[in-house]
Write a structure and sequence with these properties.
The complex is a heterodimer of chains A (255) and B (311). Chain A is of the alpha/beta class and 255 residues long. Helix content of chain A is 35%, strand content 26%. The two termini of chain A are 30 Å apart. Chain B has one domain: MetI-like fold, CATH 1.10.3720.10. The chains are: A alpha/beta (255), B mainly alpha (311). Chains A and B meet through α2, α3 and α6 of A and α4, α8, α9 and α12 of B.
């Protein structure tokens, strides 16, 4: 197993009095794809958003336990600095209403890079990294909104890469895409994992099976509190689950 | 839901004669209803046409290039044109926007972007935000003459700015602030949360997110608010009656008084026998308001097109 990139210890999250995540201890290895699967409402996205502290935006959220990036406490870091190290791709492609170039250059610019040459280079590398360069290189001034859904999502991936993070969080990145666009995103994820630690939330178990090295299965009962049931190599989770609930879920008995 | 007792899964069939009679009745009711709606909108359009038509027909004779470009000469017969009052109106609009737009837009951003803190922030901040929101609501409902009296008491007498552009500008700014704040708030709220999240997730600060993503996306809405304010200033009389004085000369400094178009219309109608000139001034006012509304319409169309693209 690779070094540990992200880690939670006895981590719980509350919305006011409601406990959304309970006692989650998980070690996410570096430069691997880790999938988080589980039925709706089990707190997968909430857990994912812990690592770039997107939950900070929601009033009344409180956490217990530890969350670590490279062994450092996430909650005592500066949130802006954290988000430069941990990028995110959202469920619905959300390019800014700006040109393709400005979308990708946005992250470096807010981080203070002004030099045109340096920006040009970052934009090209990032678009190449997201397998979008060949399709858009002649139209960098075109609005990001004019691209197809799948291209928009790859633009959002390029935008995340441009900040040079070491971790990329993906919250159901292919949920709104057609099968062909989905396939391209999945291929891209396999390429990106050479250099990045990727954590992906997905509803689609086949997708988890295709793209991930490790899988964490989250589950919830009537209380709606999300718990981690099982974490292991993806192939073990899919061929030899240790927990009855994992087995029921991946064989499609519910969820 | 309690299921009714059903012996068959198919509903009882209605006799066809009854269905068609029923259908005719329903169609007649629809025709009647739509007829009433048509009538209502016809009446509204008619009222508008009558008002605008009356002003134009009566004011038409005094409308000319000369009327627009010569200064009023005063006197009982209302000699001269309206050139200085047009310029004074433009000066005042500019002055009020310079004061009210930055204040209003800033306040709106603060009220929206820090809204969640009305629930979670410290007691002081929470109180401040609630008071500010309540203040905007209340200001929007206050009759304009009260802004006028306030402006008179504070700017004209206490601060000794006299009847002047400055007094009128400050009082007018109070008048349009609620409009600017509210339309800006609405414009900010139409910017999708996903854009804010996208920006924050890239390591942008909240301020960078507001200034580089949220504000640019909200600009058409903000411009709409400003244009609405321009319309409000052009048509306002009460506030300026007690703060701007009534001189028909062109103000030569911030501290000299003057007359806006609406004020001039009022003076012409009340103090002179130049009723046709009053109507001519009215026609000019109506044309400018129509132009402003056309601009607003154009901008909001662009805005809604932008929002659609984003969804």
């Amino acid at each position: 197993m690779n070094a540990i990139k992200l880690e939670t210890n006895a981590y719980s999250l509350f919305y006011g009095k409601f406990r959304a995540l309970e006692d989650i201890s998980l070690k996410i290895p570096e430069k691997q794809v880790t999938a988080i699967i589980g039925p709706s409402g089990c707190g997968k996205s909430t857990f994912l958003r812990t690592f770039n502290r997107m939950n900070d935006l929601i009033p009344g959220v409180r956490t217990e336990g530890q969350a670590l990036l490279d062994g450092e406490d996430i909650f005592s870091m500066d949130v802006v600095a954290l988000r430069q190290r941990v990028g995110m791709v959202f469920q619905k492609p959300n390019p800014f209403p700006k040109s393709i170039y400005d979308n990708v250059a946005y992250g470096p610019r807010v981080n203070g890079i002004r030099d045109k040459k340096a920006l040009d280079e970052i934009v090209e590398t990032s678009l190449r990294g997201a397998a979008l360069w060949d399709e858009v290189k002649d139209n960098l001034g075109k609005s990001g909104l004019a691209l197809s859904g799948g291209q928009q999502q790859r633009l959002c991936i390029a935008r995340a890469l441009a900040v040079r993070p070491s971790v990329i969080l993906m919250d159901e990145p292919a949920a709104s895409l057609d099968p062909i666009a989905t396939q391209r995103i999945e291929e891209l994820i396999r390429q990106l994992v050479e250099e990045y630690t990727i954590v992906i939330v997905t509803h689609n178990m086949q997708q988890a099976g295709r793209v991930s090295d490790y899988t964490a299965f989250f589950f919830t009962d009537e209380s709606s509190t999300g718990k981690l049931v099982e974490f292991n190599l993806t192939r073990k989770i899919f061929t030899n689950p240790q927990d009855k609930r994992t087995e029921d879920y991946i064989t499609g008995r519910f969820g | 839901m309690n299921a009714p007792e059903m012996t068959s899964t198919r509903p009882t069939e209605l006799p066809s004669s009854r269905t068609s009679a029923n259908l005719r009745k329903r169609q007649a009711a629809q025709k009647f209803g739509f007829g009433l709606l048509w009538l209502a909108s016809l009446v509204v359009i008619l009222i508008l046409l009558v008002v605008v038509g009356y002003v134009f027909l009566t004011g038409f004779k005094s409308l000319s290039w000369e009327f627009l470009t010569t200064a009023p000469k005063g006197g009982l017969s209302g000699e001269g044109g309206i050139s200085t009052t047009i310029l004074t109106t433009i000066y005042l609009v500019g002055l009020i926007l310079v004061i009210a737009a930055p204040l209003g837009i800033g306040a709106a951003i603060f009220l929206i972007e820090y809204q969640e803190q009305t629930k979670t922030g410290g007691k002081f901040l929470r109180g401040l935000l609630q008071a500010a929101n309540f203040g905007v609501e209340t200001l929007a409902g206050i009759p304009s003459i009260i802004f006028g009296l306030f402006g008179y008491a504070l700017f004209v007498s206490t601060l000794k700015f006299g009847f002047s552009l400055l007094s009128a500008g400050l009082a007018g700014a109070c008048l349009v602030l609620p409009t600017i704040i509210r339309t800006t708030q609405e414009a900010l709220l139409t910017v999708p949360v996903s854009l804010r999240e996208g920006s924050l997730a890239l390591g942008a600060t909240r301020w960078q997110t507001i200034s580089k993503v949220v504000l640019p996306a909200a600009i058409p809405g903000i411009i709409t608010g400003i244009m609405l304010s321009v319309g409000r200033i052009i048509s306002e009389t009460a506030v300026f009656y007690v703060t701007l004085g009534g001189s028909y000369r062109l103000p030569n400094s911030l501290l000299s008084g003057g007359r806006t178009l609406s004020l001039h219309l009022y003076y012409l109608a009340m103090d002179t026998n130049a009723f046709e000139k009053a109507m001519g001034t009215g026609a000019v006012l109506i044309v400018s308001i129509i132009l402003i509304n056309l601009v607003i319409d154009l901008i909001s169309r662009k805005l809604s097109a932008g929002v659609r693209q984003n969804q």
